[in-house]
Amino acid sequence: MKFVIKFIREALGRIIILIDLITRPRKQKRSPEAQAKVEAELNNYSLYQFYACPFCIKTRRALHRLNLPMQKRNAKEGSQHRAELLNGGGAVKVPCLRIQKDGQDTWMYESSEIINYLEQKFA
Ligand SMILES: N[C@@H](CCC(=O)N[C@@H](CS)C(=O)NCC(=O)O)C(=O)O
C-alpha cells in the first residue's frame, strides 16, 4: 500500500512537472551587469528539494520566473544533502532555502515564505 501511494505521488509529481514545463512564465530580464551581480549573490544560496514534490516545483517555477539560477540539492533518502538538511535546518522537509552568509546559516522552510523572500530581494 505504501508503495502504491509513493508511486501515485511520483506520477502526479511528474504530471505537474510536465504542466509546469509547458506553461513556464517568462524569465525576468536584467542587464548583463545586474544579472552577474545577482548570480554572485546566489553563491550564498541553495535550495534543498525533491524533484517531483509539488511545493518544490512551485518554488523552482518562481526561481525560473525571477531568473535565479540557484544551486539545487536533492534531499533524497540516504543522501548527504538530506543529512545536511536534517542537521542544519532541523527537519527533513522540502523545499528549504539555505542562506550562507558571514559564516552563518539560515534555513528557510515553507514554499510561500521562500518565494516571498526571493521576490522581495531579487524581483
Ligand atoms: N507547506 C509546505 C509543505 C512542504 C511539504 O509537505 N513537503 C513534503 C514533500 S512534498 C516533505 O518535505 N515531506 C517530508 C518527506 O517526504 O520526508 C510548503 O509549502 O513548503
From TrEMBL:
InterPro entries documented for this protein: GLR_AS, Glutathione_S-Trfase_N, Thioredoxin-like_sf
Domain GST N-terminal: residue ranges: 43-123
Pfam families: GST_N_3
Membrane spanning stretches: none
Top-level taxon of origin: Bacteria
Name of the featured protein: GST N-terminal domain-containing protein
Organism: Paraglaciecola mesophila
